[in-house]
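Work Package 4 report. The design task specified in the project plan requires that, given a folded chain encoded as structure tokens, an amino acid be chosen for each position. We show below one input record used in the internal validation round.
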């Protein structure tokens, strides 16, 4: 499948999710007619985190982890969320870095950006900015942020090496990369890789764990760590039974850490 086809499929599916969230419905990033990403997206945020957040931000969350709970954020830092969607992780990060810090979100989907900016207004977050752009070409200058987070978005890109190079570019020396993403161990059946619906549903685009480490290293990152947080079985995920058996246990949500050298 071509890069352009993947990008258009992602935009279409996430635009649909944004419209649903704006209407008070939970979106789905899995196969049509089945909540194919339920094993991935459910029960990621503690009630203490979501209390007080706009409903649209919570409903639009289609991630695979909770990077804001795992990332080490400090008062006054600048944070960038790659593929910020409805803005839940940006708003949570903005609270952590405080009024002297800044939280950016970048997203390529107009509907998600509109929803995120509405959620920002409802939350009264003044240290937040949502940018229109693609994660393969981040609309920020070099050495602009202290921490990069992302929630199940890098796996959706057809050019993950470029995404990681861009992340390295915009991080300041000593900056941290702390993302939640879907990774796999071992081979994934080709029918899954070929399925556009599953790509958009966060499964088919997942990097093999060691490949993720390699691409981070080639981009210049050090102190690389991949920590599994949830292993998926997919038996009720709306995937063909044969494929579900093949994929189960090989795909997992993980917290991926790395840093940009200080020198």
């Amino acid at each position: 499948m071509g890069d352009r086809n993947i990008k258009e499929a992602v935009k279409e599916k996430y635009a649909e999710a944004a419209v649903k969230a704006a209407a008070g419905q939970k979106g789905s990033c899995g196969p049509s007619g089945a909540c194919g990403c339920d094993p991935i997206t459910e029960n990621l945020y503690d009630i203490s985190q979501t209390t007080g957040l706009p409903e649209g931000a919570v409903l639009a969350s289609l991630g695979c982890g909770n990077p804001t709970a795992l990332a080490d954020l400090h008062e006054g830092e600048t944070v960038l969320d790659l593929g910020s969607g409805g803005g839940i992780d940006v708003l949570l990060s903005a609270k952590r870095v405080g009024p002297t810090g800044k939280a950016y979100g970048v997203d390529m989907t107009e509907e998600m950006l509109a929803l995120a900016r509405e959620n920002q207004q409802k939350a009264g977050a003044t240290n937040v900015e949502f940018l229109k752009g693609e994660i393969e070409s981040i609309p920020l200058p070099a050495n602009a942020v202290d921490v990069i987070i992302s929630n199940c978005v890098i796996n959706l890109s057809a050019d993950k090496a470029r995404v990681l190079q861009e992340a390295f570019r915009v991080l300041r020396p000593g900056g941290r990369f702390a993302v939640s993403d879907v990774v796999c161990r071992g081979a994934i059946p080709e029918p899954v890789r070929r399925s556009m619906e599953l790509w958009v549903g966060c499964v088919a685009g997942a990097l093999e764990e060691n490949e993720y480490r390699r691409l981070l290293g080639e981009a210049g990152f050090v102190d690389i760590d991949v920590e599994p947080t949830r292993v998926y079985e997919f038996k009720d995920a709306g995937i063909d039974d044969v494929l579900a058996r093949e994929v189960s246990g090989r795909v997992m949500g993980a917290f991926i850490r790395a840093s940009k050298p200080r020198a």
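The mean pLDDT is 83. Validation will be extended to a larger panel in the next phase.
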